[in-house]
Automatic annotation (TrEMBL):
<dbReference type="InterPro" id="IPR020556">
    <property type="entry name" value="Amidase_CS"/>
</dbReference>
<dbReference type="Pfam" id="PF01425">
    <property type="entry name" value="Amidase"/>
</dbReference>
<comment type="function">
    <text>Allows the formation of correctly charged Gln-tRNA(Gln) through the transamidation of misacylated Glu-tRNA(Gln) in organisms which lack glutaminyl-tRNA synthetase. The reaction takes place in the presence of glutamine and ATP through an activated gamma-phospho-Glu-tRNA(Gln).</text>
</comment>
<comment type="subunit">
    <text>Heterotrimer of A, B and C subunits.</text>
</comment>
<protein>
    <recommendedName>
        <fullName>Glutamyl-tRNA(Gln) amidotransferase subunit A</fullName>
        <ecNumber>6.3.5.7</ecNumber>
    </recommendedName>
</protein>
<dbReference type="InterPro" id="IPR023631">
    <property type="entry name" value="Amidase_dom"/>
</dbReference>
<keyword id="KW-0436">Ligase</keyword>
<feature type="domain" description="Amidase">
    <location>
        <begin position="22"/>
        <end position="463"/>
    </location>
</feature>
<dbReference type="InterPro" id="IPR004412">
    <property type="entry name" value="GatA"/>
</dbReference>
<comment type="similarity">
    <text>Belongs to the amidase family. GatA subfamily.</text>
</comment>
<dbReference type="InterPro" id="IPR000120">
    <property type="entry name" value="Amidase"/>
</dbReference>
<feature type="active site" description="Charge relay system">
    <location>
        <position position="76"/>
    </location>
</feature>
<keyword id="KW-0067">ATP-binding</keyword>
<feature type="active site" description="Acyl-ester intermediate">
    <location>
        <position position="175"/>
    </location>
</feature>
<feature type="active site" description="Charge relay system">
    <location>
        <position position="151"/>
    </location>
</feature>
<keyword id="KW-0547">Nucleotide-binding</keyword>
<keyword id="KW-0648">Protein biosynthesis</keyword>
Amino acid sequence: MHHMTLAEIARGLADKKFSSEELTKALLARIAQLDPQLNSFISLTEELALSQAKAADARRANGESGALLGAPIAHKDLFCTQGIRTSCGSKMLDNFKAPYDATVVAKLAAAGTVTLGKTNMDEFAMGSANESSHYGPVKNPWNLEHVPGGSSGGSAAAVAARLLPAATATDTGGSIRQPAAFTNLTGLKPTYGRVSRWGMIAYASSLDQGGPLARTAEDCAILLQGMAGFDPNDSTSIDEPVPDYSASLNGSLQGLRIGVPKEYFSAGLDPRIAELVHNSVKALEKLGAVIKEISLPNMQHAIPAYYVIAPAEASSNLSRFDGVRFGYRCENPENLVDLYKRSRGEGFGAEVQRRIMVGAYALSAGYYDAYYLKAQKIRRLVKNDFMAAFNEVDIILGPTTPNPAWKLGAKNSDPVAEYLEDVYTITANLAGLPGLSMPAGFVDGLPVGVQLLAPYFQEGRLLNVAHQYQLNTDWHTRTPTGF
Ligand code: GLN
């Protein structure tokens, strides 16, 4: 049962081949058996899952239908889940039970999904390796000595290991696309504002966006359908109708203009990944696409700009964790200042503290103009580069990451080396554009992803291209040995 995609599960449930309860029990047993190797879950929600599965079966028996009705999923542990621990991968929130459901969680529950649990993640979604979690690192099912990517590494490892068909994730600088690339999944970061951020614990509010992680573009379309839409509770949510994403999958690629930025093929890119990117370009050309070289001249400034803006916003967002209102509180505080200092010093891990310090520094009176304001100007230039490129092409294609998944611990002593791995993903967040990573081959037995970027609200176009590619390639069907 565990090999089925969301689309196959939907057909099986509709044809009464099995019930959601049977499927849920089978997957919970599989998680209990295999997850100890991966550490992809922070919390399991067996009771909730079984009651949701029974309710979904009852709804079907009453004549209701829907691709998500009875579908088992999991949520990244930064989506608030009412009455259930929502830790954000942090000791700070280890004891935090959210008092309400995030909009994404509520929408998916209403569509009939079954929540198996909450997935592991980098602390407060800061990282590219899923090593900064208070609950320990997540292992990559393709090679247990390697990282699964981050920050949505738990969602990615669980889906890649066939513990469940799909999961929610979030992407501030690549945290959906990069773990998708590292674990042979398809992951979509929607346009900023397409998916509600209400009840998603904030990292960098102007960059954060929730989206689906699954094995295929077809499944991403199904899950995104349940997540997307206007939410009056999120002032940056956009009031645009949600198209039928599954209907967009089958368009022809004849004449589709694909831009390949020349800056992507610089010295930092593993030449074996460059070759796989070229192979994917050839495969899409065969389907009728037309390839054009383009330029994104400000790309080189994106990492420094992102690593000023994201920490600046984080330093503000995380100020609410003060030992008074949420989460961890130190023992026997001597006075209020001691309470703040020790609660935050003990509750936050090293990477989170580093980001808070960088962010507070960049925002301080003497340095605001030099760092934060300059970074915002670069952000506009990065966006302008994309706007110019999309006057000439319909899609931009390139590698998702410069290297395949590295070994656990390999970058722990050098945070900047880890930041540099985000070079291809962060520009979409700075510009607010939608991006998708899809499986495109292997290097040393480790998966490699190709990234597609599209103009605002063209998620359907990304899913269309990825689906047509997947109809003509079989990378996405490969399964890690032992799972
Ligand atoms: N690696 C990036 C960071 O640490 C992106 C993380 C994310 O998208 N949540 O900020």
